[in-house]
Amino acid sequence: NTPFRLAFEELTTFASTLELLIPKRDAEHAMLLVNTVAADLAADASAMSNLEAKSEVYALANILASVGEAIAASDWQAAEAQWWVFKQTQADVAERMF
Known about the structure:
This protein is mainly α. It contains 5 helices and no strands.
């Protein structure tokens, strides 16, 4: 239970709210969530003890930012696609981060 692991689990739990916000086309709340979580995820990478996995955390933050870019453009299909990429990437890298 490192500080990064706790932060990562909290932030990705918050991000999972996109499961509801994207289908509802709730741009206001989705953008608030994405802008907060993506920035915090990247910032919290500095607390990682596994330095080799930092780039994967930054990649996740960038994918989440891409979700926000799609939402800002009202491209909900792209937002859904990028959200799927985020979830898959998170599942792929989660265990080797800690």
